[in-house]
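Exercise: predict the fold of this chain.
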Amino acid sequence: MTLARFLYGLFIVATVALLLGLPLALRSNAPSDAGIIERFVAPGPLSTAHQSLAGQCASCHTPVKGVEAKTCVSCHTGTDFGDKQSTVFHAKATQCASCHVEHQGDQGIVRMSHPALLDPKLWRQTTAPSPSGTAGPRSKAALKCSSCHSVRDKHLGLFGSDCASCHSTKSWKIADYRHPSTNSTQCVECHKAPPSHLMEHFSMVSQRAAGEKARVDQCFACHTTDSFNNIRSRGWYDHH
């Protein structure tokens, strides 16, 4: 190959790269004052919380290795996970990016990954070694839902702590669930009265608002099945 042909081929490649790369650079999610490299490789918008790092790839990314947990911790070292069920488990994490994904705007920064909870490589405390001699990922059956969700249990403990018997990690909604008939009178089997119904407030306000003298356990006398705020003889009512 002559030098002229080599230079001609190099010119063609450079021209094609410029024609393809220029539109991508112009449509980049990197800030306008970012360097040309940053504009070419910006894969998507940062979350609101990380906007101050836009165009500063090296602030989070380590060459060849990508995003390392120690880099995240260098900024979030003062984060207090406290004793809240929904946050305390973070203190045992060895990798952040398995759940907190950037360059997807605010949609990906807090993306819950239940499978990540089962991967011992991502946590300081691993499971006991498997028969093969290695500690491998556990099945979803090993998840204890109540360890994170019991404080927000809308069932108020009436259905126990085996959430997985009805719910899945893909969706909290139960596709096949059908509420009992609107004429059902067994509400107390699933529903508990709010604290205000167990005080003088019930006779002074709730009964008067509903125009009923029903007992606390006779939910059906005042409430409908589409919403507790839909009062049978009054319509929508919310005084809290």
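Check your answer against the key: Helices lie at 3-26, 36-41, 69-76, 114-117, 146-149, 201-210.
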